[in-house]
């Protein structure tokens, strides 16, 4: 949650939400809330296990976690 007039507090989360909307949600329709929930869970799995992130050396978050542990 942001502090009043401090939009930078949630910059990382906002970036993830923007990426998710751009790559996964825009242009799609969902018949039910359950369908949307399934799609969001699938995107989270993709984001953490398959999608490469430039900020961590083009690794997935899961790979990077193993590398630095």
Q: What is the compact description of this entry?
A:
Helix content is 58%, strand content 0%. It is an all-alpha fold and 69 residues long.
Notable traits:
3 helices, mainly alpha, 69 residues
Overall description:
The structure is a single chain. The protein is mainly alpha-helical and 69 residues long. It has a domain at 30-69. It is built from three helices and no strands. The relative contact order is 0.09.
Structural class: mainly alpha
Alpha-carbon Rg, integer: 15 Å
Helix content class: 55-70%
Assembly state: single chain
Return the average pLDDT rounded to an integer. 90
Q: What is the 3D shape?
A: flat
Q: Layout of SSEs?
A:
Layout: H1 11-25, H2 33-49, H3 61-68
């Amino acid at each position: 949650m942001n502090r009043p007039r401090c939009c930078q507090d949630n910059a990382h989360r906002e970036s993830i939400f923007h990426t998710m909307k751009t790559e996964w949600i825009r242009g799609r329709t969902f018949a039910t809330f359950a369908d949307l929930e399934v799609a969001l869970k699938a995107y989270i799995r993709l984001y953490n296990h398959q999608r490469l992130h430039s900020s961590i050396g083009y690794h997935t978050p899961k790979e990077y976690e193993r590398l630095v542990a």
